[in-house]
Amino acid sequence: MKQANSLIWRLLRQHISIGQLVGFFLANLIGMLIVLLSLQFYNDLVPAFSQEDGFLKNTYIIVSKRVSTVSMFDNNSSVFSNDEIDDIRQQSFTNSIGEFTASKYRIYASLSLSGAARMGTDMFFESVPDEFVDIDLDKWKFEEGDEEVPIILPRSYLALYNFGFAQSASLPKLTEGFISMVQMDLRLRGESERIELKGRIVGFSTRLNTILAPASFIRWSNQRLAPSSSTLPTRLIVEVKNPTDDNIARYMYDHDYELEDDKLDAGRTTYFLRIVAGIIIAVGLLISALSFYILMLSIFLLVQKNANKLENLLLIGYSPARVARPYQLLTISLNAAVLILAFALLMWLRSYYMTMLQQMFPDMEAGSLMPAIIVGLSLFVVVSLFNIFAVRGKVQNIWDRKD
Questions:
Q1: Structural domain contains residue 20
Q2: Residues 121, 213: one domain?
Q3: Are 398 and 272 found together in one domain?
Q4: Which residues share a beta bridge with 285?
Q5: Structure pTM?
Q6: Which of 1, 73, 295, 393 qualifies as a cystine partner to 24, CB 3.0-4.6 A?
């Protein structure tokens, strides 16, 4: 067996084209690297954009009615009727819809920071259905009799304090972790009753630019402090299926509704990111397929050039499997070298771009390498098996022809 393998290797070396094999190796390496790098880059971006308020989650848009001269003096002109809400719900671009419910009473909140003078301000609350809220829902509960109200603040409010008010008043800047430990004193004043509660900040959001309280709290407090007020919403939160759907903008324009454009733009960014990643992976797979074709042509050419000598080996008793083995080992070795080098280059390039991503998103967590590893190994196994059976089939044809 060793003698036969040695003989076949000598035959192989006589007609081998180094240029063809190098061409296959480089083309396959480029294709493999494109596939793995695009998959891993996309996978690493997911945690950055799918955090609690990231825009890689389901795509939400905020819908309101356009403020006009009439609506300045008629509050009812800015609310959505049940028929209007149902009409939006039935549109082809709508996945689900929720209503903003506002507090209908006066709210005064006060707190003190780091021994400084107590600060207070009038404020408001809104709520949306719990499935639209982007924090751990275990923290997002209120029942009648509770003395503490969980609150979500917009991140923009904290930025305004840190880089505006705190800087001008020589007050310390606050982190999200610190402000979450501070309790607010809330005074709620309704038509005939006042209630004092504590407020606890449980999160910050960039998706919803409002001060949120649980829907259960808003229902309870409105019924108790403003039972005669209207419950129709002035804003809606809509989960859309495809943020690039032209029907969204057309529908909103036809009905004179307004959108928070940044939410729609973020959704478009997400959508195009997925498309671009898919196109790049497809290009990588195409390059890999072409390089595989180059390899097969090279191997078939080697076999064809050595057909007479291989036929003699078959005639003296060597099996087709033994004769094909050196060619199969050559292809497997080349595929393995491509895979190992592709993984090495992937790790090097990943360390480079992760440094930049972590500067842009300090709190991001890197994605798992497992998808790229699984895809790389799967491509190696599939291509190698195809090589093995193709070479075996070519040698078998020589065997059948001698018969």
A1: yes
A2: yes
A3: yes
A4: none
A5: 0.53
A6: 295
- Average confidence (pLDDT) per 10 residues, the chain, 403 residues: 59 63 76 81 68 52 74 62 90 88 87 61 85 74 86 80 71 71 83 86 77 89 83 84 74 83 58 73 74 68 66 67 74 86 89 76 70 85 80 71 57
Point out the domain boundary residue: 206, 230, 254. Answer: 230
Contact 53, 256 (CB under 8 A): no
Tokens of 104: 């209908």
Domain around 352: 2-53+268-402
Q: Is residue 242 part of a domain?
A: no
Task: Quickly tell me which residue has 């080697």 as its tokens.
Answer: 302
Residue 257 lies in a domain: no
The C-alpha atoms of residue 311 and residue 8 are separated, in whole angstroms, by: 11
Contact 124, 103 (CB under 8 A): yes
pLDDT at 145 (0 to 100) = 82
Handedness of CA 77, 83, 88, 91 (dihedral sign): negative
Q: For residue 262, what pLDDT is reported? A: 53
Q: Which residue has the tokens 């780091």?
A: 114
Question: Are residues 272 and 398 located together in one domain of the fold?
Answer: yes
C-alpha triplet 239, 358, 31: angle, nearest 5°? 80
User: Measured between alpha carbons, how far is 97 from 80 in angstroms, rounded to an integer?
Assistant: 13
- Cα angle: 69, vertex 70, 71; to 5 degrees: 95
Q: Flag whether 247 is in a domain.
A: no
* Tens digits of residue pLDDT in 327-343: 778 778 888 888 899 89
Q: How far apart are CA 110 and CA 87, in angstroms?
A: 41
Q: At what angle do helices 261-305 and 18-49 cross, to 10 degrees?
A: 160
